[in-house]
Amino acid sequence: MKKIALGLVVLSLGVTGCSTGTIKNKEMKEVTWKHIGDLPVPKGFEKQYGVAGPLAGHIGEYVIIAGGANFPYKPVLEGGAKVVYSDLYLMKKTSDGLELVKHTHLPKEIGYGSAISTEKGIYYIGGTYQTGVSNEIIFVGLNKDKTDIEVKTIGKLPFEYHSGVAVLKGDDIFIVAGKQNGKDSKNFYKYNLSTGKTSELKMFPGTERSQPVGQILHNGKEEMLYVFGGGTGVAFTDGYAYSFSQDSWSKAKDVVLNNHGISVLGANSVKLDSSKMLVIGGFNKAIWDDANLKLGSLKGEALKNYRESYFNKDPQDFNWNKNMLVYNAKTNTWESMGEIPFMAPCGEGLVKIGDTIYSINGEIKPGIRSPRIYEGKLK
Q1: Which of 54, 121, 137, 285 would bridge 68 by S-S if both were Cys, CB 3.0 to 4.6 A apart?
Q2: How many CB atoms lie within 10 A of CB 85?
Q3: What percent of the residues of the chain are helix, what percent strand, and what percent coil, each to the nearest 5?
Q4: What domain count does the chain have?
Q5: DSSP class of residue 345?
Q6: What's the Cα-to-Cα distance from 232 to each of 81, 290, 309, rounded to whole Å?
Q7: pLDDT tens column, 141-181
Q8: Catalytic residue among 30, 109, 363, 375
Q9: Which uninterrupted H or E stretch holds 295?
Q10: Known catalytic residue: 363?
Q11: Each residue of 27-68: pLDDT tens digit?
């Protein structure tokens, strides 16, 4: 196996606070982050530019990273074309980071779908191709020797889908918001893995949106699906909870830290335990809202000048969310575990195995990705 965990760099020790808040809950864990290497170079290329929107999940101690997209030829400002990949990297968790077991390919390039990790394999719902959008549900598993992956299509949705929230409860995959048939949506569906039937559920109560975050959490009374943020031409900070038993939505705490709303549009999340979810990343609301307004309304020289100024900014000038945000369903509160010690990613892969978290690539400014993989240790 080829190691990618070369030249380990300890980036932060005992992150316990941040510029916008401190940990008030003594039960909150700390995270130690380090750079463990870069995603291997895709076949046919000489450099790995990093991807956004990859398929990222795990099967036991094995991490699978596949697909995603970037702009390898020219920058966005120069009209560079986005490339979606089919490369798949099977890696194994080690004490030093991740070891590459095999570099292979998915049947087709894919990105921006929803990945759900289980003990048996990873369900991947929808996603974008190089041309077109998927309505498929695929299952990614390991062979008996755990040296290769097996990919098969197990179902199809009655709509094309990407950039929403999908979770698994029992034998059902619940899919809400995202781009459905090409439009930002608030539709909510249940797909049954046994029957292949798709059922429509109570519509999401917020505005239509893409790129929210969500997890199933236990609030002390029942398991509910919690969905936060996302956006359209504007970024949202609102939150909602769905009761499976009642088929109804209720309001959850908005994403707020020290009375300041935080956008988690484009962020990713993992469960810390049965009642808490960790969210990393998110576009800055003020900058996102302003850019969407001006890129859509300015004309001629004014638009040209704005585009040049906007896309030539340094990553830190976009002020994306660096807080490691934690939502607690039992207390309906948000807190921060401190800040990540690397550029805030959007569209990253986020995988948790036990007390280890992997932050994989992601966009660090519009059109620019990072090839880096970071490992966070919870303690």
Answers
A1: 54
A2: 23
A3: 10, 45, 45
A4: 1
A5: P
A6: 22, 12, 22
A7: 999 999 999 999 999 999 999 999 999 999 999 999 999 99
A8: 363
A9: helix 285-297
A10: yes
A11: 667 999 999 999 999 999 999 999 999 999 999 999 999 999
